[in-house]
Design brief:
With 84 residues, this protein is of the alpha+beta class. The chain has one domain. 31% of the residues lie in helices and 21% in strands. The protein contains 3 helices and 3 strands, in the order H-E-E-E-H-H. The chain has a 3-stranded antiparallel beta sheet with strand order 1-2-3, covered by helices on one side. It starts with a helix and ends with a helix. The model has no long low-confidence stretch (mean pLDDT 88).
């Protein structure tokens, strides 16, 4: 039953979170081959990536956080949404 449920999930496509305190979620395959849900982004804040100063500041600030290149980390997906 678990395989059928995970087969319906679109992998590596961020989507809006319907409930909870995070704004987005994405399903990714973990290192062990299982599907993992990664939730990221504050639901109470807006992304203002179209303002160059804010984008530059966020990209610089989040560049030193661990998990920048790991698809199973929230930082990876957040940076991708900002276009860093």
């Amino acid at each position: 039953m678990a395989k059928a449920k995970s087969a319906k999930r679109p992998l590596n496509k961020p989507m809006r979170e319907r409930k909870g305190n995070k704004k987005f979620k994405v399903y990714v395959k973990g290192k062990n081959g299982r599907v993992k849900t990664v939730r990221f982004g504050s639901a109470s804040m807006k992304i203002k990536k179209n303002q160059p100063g804010r984008k530059k500041s966020y990209c610089a600030r989040s560049g030193g956080i661990k998990g920048k290149g790991d698809k199973t980390s929230a930082n990876y997906w957040s940076r991708r949404m900002w276009g860093c």
